[in-house]
Amino acid sequence: QPTTIAHIFYLDHNITDSDTYDTYRTFHRSLFARKMKSIFITLGYLIAIAASSVAAFCPRHRSVSPSTTSIGPSRTSQLRSSPSSSSTTATNKSNTFTVTIALTRETGKNDKLQEAILAHPTRKILENSMNLQLIEMPCIQHADGPGLEAFRKLAQDDPSFAKFEYVIVTSPESASVFGSVAKPDSFSSKIAAVGKATKNALTKQGFQVDFVPSKADGETLGDELPPVKKMGLNNILYSASVKAPNTIQDKLEKRKDASFRVQRLNTYDTVPVIFSEEQMTTAMDHVQVACFGSPTAVDAWLGNVDRALGIQDLDEEERKKTPGSNGNAIAVCIGTTTAKKCLESGRWHAQDIYYPVKNPGLEGW
């Protein structure tokens, strides 16, 4: 019997090339093979023939959107589960399949992603055939960074931060650290935020954000940041995570249109969360999709998988060869950097890694 699975991830996509077709087939097999018996795919438009409700609800398909692609492919909170519907008939239950998604951001930071997933129109389309389980499984938690004291001293010596043309803030957590030290009433420098979520975190604290790049990543920020001084040196303060790469300062300091000098302070760190036995079992036996918001979350997930499989003492090459060494989960990443981390880990095939290309951040995720 043909299925409605096409609508889950391809509602906005017209599959027209063999690579995408093969990617779709591999993705379908890896995620739903146990529940689905056949796949019907046309290379023009994806149409789910079996469900008349789908045809009525979705009279047409839109063309391919270029914004989403696959690359080819402690303390923890209580697990939270959000079923897709409260009641079904016995007949419906026998015909439903379950999709279990792990939300891996730190405790308290998964709500917006959960709300966005639950509000997605495909959930309504498949309400009679898909049981959606969203489980909060934080993989990271935050700690003070070695540069926090130096940051506090800067704020104490000059609350206005006037000697800097910009202060760069690259995550909501960085915004939180920044707001705990700097005060909006005395602050006079310009602020550059890496994306909308970071901007919102700053504006809620009373700060004015002067620049957000066209794409929410450090590379684009480094390329697009407008210099305050066309002639002369632009001094930049970069409040960063210990684990953040050097992309921003490298990009700025190599710019030809203006001169930038970056002072980086690692004001916070992200450390892995060790799963409980219950979470280990859930990750290995039930989760089919893992949502990663940072490269650190990927590392933490894989560390917990290694412990669950008892391979943490093997060398990296041996761990890569172990069946199920990624937790048997599709990776869905917030952006390119995190997706590259999954690929470079050697634990996922390229076609099992998904990320938004042109709209990285929460909405695209």
List keywords for this structure.
365 residues; alpha/beta; six-stranded mixed β-sheet; five-stranded mixed β-sheet; 15 helices; 35% helix; 18% strand; disordered N terminus
Ends apart, CA distance between termini: 31 Å
What form results from the Cα inertia axes? elongated
The oligomeric status of these chains comes to single chain
* String of helices and strands: HHHEHEHHEEHEHEHHEHEHEHHEHE
Instruction: Supply the helix-strand structural class.
Output: alpha/beta
* Residues in helix, %: 25-40%
- Provide mean pLDDT, rounded: 80
Count of helical segments? 15
The count of β-strands is: 11
Biggest sheet, spatial arrangement of strands: 1-11-10-9-2-3
The low-confidence parts are 1-68, 72-91
User: Nearest-angstrom radius of gyration?
Assistant: 23 Å
Largest sheet: 6 strands, mixed
Q: Roughly what fraction of the amino acids lie in strands? A: 15-25%
3D structure, described in words:
It is a single chain. This protein is of the alpha/beta class. The chain has 15 helices and eleven strands. It has a six-stranded mixed sheet with strand order 1-11-10-9-2-3. A five-stranded mixed sheet has the order 4-8-7-5-6, sandwiched between helices. The protein starts with 5 loop residues before the first helix and ends in a 9-residue tail after the last strand.
